Amino acid sequence: xxxxxxxxxxxxxxxxxxxxxxxxxxxxxxxxxxxxxxxxxxxxxxxxxxxxxxxxxxxxxxxxxxxxxxxxxxxxxxxxxxxxxxxxxxxxxxxxxxxxxxxxxxxxxxxxxxxxxxxxxxxxxxxxxxxxxxxxxxxxxxxxxxxxxxxxxxxxxxxxxxxxxxxxxxxxxxxxxxxxxxxxxxxxxxxxxxxxxxxxxxxxxxxxxxxxxxxxxxxxxxxxxxxxxxxxxxxxxxxxxxxxxxxxxxxxxxxxxxxxxxxxxxxxxxxxxxxxxxxxxxxxxxxxxxxxxxxxxxxxxxxxxxxxxxxxxxxxxxxxxxxxxxxxxxxxxxxxxxxxxxxxxxxxxxxxxxxxxxxxxxxxxxxxxxxxxxxxxxxxxxxxxxxxxxxxxxxxxxxxxxxxxx
Amino acid sequence: xxxxxxxxxxxxxxxxxxxxxxxxxxxxxxxxxxxxxxxxxxxxxxxxxxxxxxxxxxxxxxxxxxxxxxxxxxxxxxxxxxxxxxxxxxxxxxxxxxxxxxxxxxxxxxxx
Lengths: 406, 112
Ligand code: FES
Ligand SMILES: [Fe+2]
Fold this sequence. Notes:
The structure holds two protein chains of two kinds.
Chain A lengths: L17 E2 L6 H12 L4 E5 L8 E7 L4 E7 L5 E5 L14 E3 L3 E2 L6 E2 L5 E3 L18 E7 L2 E5 L7 H5 L2 H5 L9 E9 L3 H7 L6 H4 L5 H4 L11 E5 L2 E7 L8 H9 L31 E8 L3 E5 L4 E10 L2 E10 L5 H33 L5 E2 L6 H18 L4
Chain B lengths: L13 H7 L4 H9 L3 H11 L3 H8 L10 H23 L14 E4 L3
Helix pairs in contact in B: 2-5, 3-5, 4-5
The site of FE2/S2 (inorganic) cluster (FES) has 10 residues of chain A, from loops.
């Protein structure tokens, strides 16, 4: 019998070897920064982080060495400002988060209101010909989708809604807002940003690399290679729908964790919480597989939202060079109601962290062998289709921007 | 090491509480990676058999600022069990097998 390829769903993708230069060429990286990161919608954080008027958090953007203030005003509007005083550029917010009635610079005391307007200058008479009304904090375009706060450094870019296209409505309805208990893990990786995304986008590696951890939950049974249940592309965005093993036999502590987790305990290895009882939006488990495990959604360029039946987590990859990436993973759970649920959350956090430590360790070795020129092309498997697509859309975005083949 | 009191019925775990009843994820992860596999296994073997009883007890304890010291110590002890379980049940060694260097992993936000 002829094998059916998932790659055949996407006739614009080749099946041949893929050139690796875009994963290490410094010149290509500069073009990506210009063509992609300077004009894409990038995720700053969640609305649940700033529920009250005057709440703020600071989002650092390593790619541009920028610091942004994300703040909810007295009018309840969320705005984003460059964290830079108009006097001489000191950062206004020095804490990572907080609540404040005004934005006051702690250098010489210039004070701004929560809409960014410059309100007060100490000893203002000593400044020369200032027009206070033109010296507000520099606002950055922002928009909210399903509680995710995005920013865009390009004034002329299309709206967030247009940018997301059909993946926007497809994922709307998933209860992102219930995950108010967050944790975040971060590393500085010697790897190209795309390779970091890729390492979380294919399942071909699951049975081998994750043989100690999640191999049996996302592969096994009649799917020992962990074949995807589906792949869906929405413009530059994409979903890889990953198989889950319904017959998985939990390990000793997992059994206890599943028993006591309740709605607050939910994991990629099977604890399901109450979202398992919800009707999922059409973009989650898009093929309505009865063997669905998780979906890996990539919002172009650098936001990965991994959605499971009972919880979700995000990866963000911030390139700081062709071979260097600041990586953050943020997990979102419903708050623990009991001390036992808190323990279950910790256990699932550890499972996720340790599994990801298996993924991350491959990256520097891959990077080394393309930077030294030993490896010149990648040979993608059918179930690495997300990587082939990633390569394709990045090239297309850079070509579209420069109006010429690259 | 100071003794850390535990709720009635869990006193036999107190030899482990002094070392493992730790209040933050960072401390618990550090203890895991600073311990030998024999030490981790001894802790697991002592504490794991009481997991069901302990979580049943702690499932009646609301997770809020009003927790008493003994309950909090018991919770912290089992949070450490949660930390080291993968070392025992998955890897057979303190660190992830062929994993990323633990000291390079930052945790900017811990679970509340
Ligand atoms: S730099 Fe902010 S007041 Fe001087
Ligand atoms: Fe992986």
